[in-house]
Amino acid sequence: MMKMICKNKSSLLFLMLVTSLSLFLYWFSLLYLANKHVNYAKLAHKDDPMKRGSDFDEKLVVIYNRIPKTGSTSFINLAYDLCKKNKFHVLHINVTANMHVLSLQNQIDFVRNITHWNEMKPALYHGHMAYLDFSKFSMPFKPIYVNLIRKPLDRLVSYYYFLRYGDNFRPNLVRKKAGDKMTFDECVEKKQPDCDPKNMWLQIPFFCGHAAECWIPGNEWALNQAKQNLVNNYFLVGVTEQMEDFINLLELSLPRMFNGTLDHYLNSSKSHLRQTASKIQPTGKTISDITKSPIWKMENDLYEFALQQFHFLYKLRSNIRLQGKNFSQKYFYEKIRPK
């Protein structure tokens, strides 16, 4: 009898041991598979560009090398109003004596600074500075460039009267030509330096960059380089006359920074900042005289080129029209190999 009891106890202990071991192996397998699944998920997250969006957003750097008298104050003040809400930084680039190009030492210092200043990311940098190509400094980082361009004669006329009468942004600030009552028409008729067509040579060099040829009025190479940079190195270039569409496109494509910008532009006082206090539109004769200039023709060529690019991108902004119907444009991956 004692032998049978011992035998039964031994069998029971063996059964319990086997059961415990089976349960242990079962739970170990579950934990292993779960951990493996997490690792695969991490790997997929790492390799999937669509899931790296947050990392892209938090390292986002936009440079707006704003051209004088193109509506840049109205646009940049939207960013200042929304930067706290959208949690990004806005920094003004102030170059000594309002120079539009940097020395070689400052170029590389500027590039290194923006590249490594992680505490300021995401960030929007803005200032009256010519395009600077980050890739030639062998940096593993390239910011996103945006800009606005304006009809060249409109920009020149606006700047002419701005120097004399100021604007509604800082109405009490005395400008350097204050008291000069000569109209732009009279200036052109008398061939004065303030209305010389060479003064229109600004948008081309801003897009062209830091090369010496960029700043030679009438330089054909500069125009071609400006076009190449505009297409290849700028994320978006809008036109002053369609700033609302420019803001709309920025909000749709870079919502991390520009979310809510269009609504703020349309429903606040920031859509009409910095209007020149007194401005007289030029006569037909003045326009005819100015538009004969090769400088105007080249600057207008760049403007028309930029306008064409902008209209093309805006038509593709979110919807496409096929067979008489509107569709929201999407993209996806298929036929992925190996399985």
Describe this structure in words.
Helices cover 50% and strands 9% of the residues. A hairpin with a 2-residue loop joins strand 6 (319-322) and strand 7 (325-328). The model is unreliable at 2-6 and 36-52 (pLDDT under 50). It has a five-stranded parallel beta sheet, sandwiched between helices. Strands 6-7 form a two-stranded antiparallel sheet. It has a single domain (51-322), classed as Rossmann fold, CATH 3.40.50. It has 339 residues and is an alpha/beta fold. It contains 13 helices and seven strands. The termini are far apart. The chain has helices at residues 2-47, 53-58, 72-86, 104-116, 152-165, 184-189, 203-208, 220-232, 243-253, 255-258, 261-267, 284-290, 294-315; strands at 61-64, 89-92, 123-126, 144-149, 236-239, 319-322, 325-328.
Low-confidence blocks of residues: 2-6, 36-52
Helix content: 40-55%
CATH topology: Rossmann fold
Our count of helices gives: 13
Strand order of the largest sheet: 2-3-1-4-5
> What percent strand?
5-15%
CATH architecture tag: 3-Layer(aba) Sandwich
The CATH homologous superfamily is named P-loop containing nucleotide triphosphate hydrolases
Average of per-residue pLDDT values: 85
- Using the coordinates above, name the CATH class: Alpha Beta
Total number of β-strand segments? 7
Please give the radius of gyration in angstroms.
31 Å
The major pleated sheet works out as:
5 strands, parallel
Overall tally of domains: 1
The succession of helices and strands, N to C, reads: HHEHEHEEHHHHEHHHHHEE
Helix/strand/pairing category: alpha/beta
Shape: elongated
Distance between the termini: 64 Å
Transmembrane segments: 12-34
Subunit structure: Homotrimer.
Subcellular location: Golgi apparatus membrane
Protein name: Heparin sulfate O-sulfotransferase
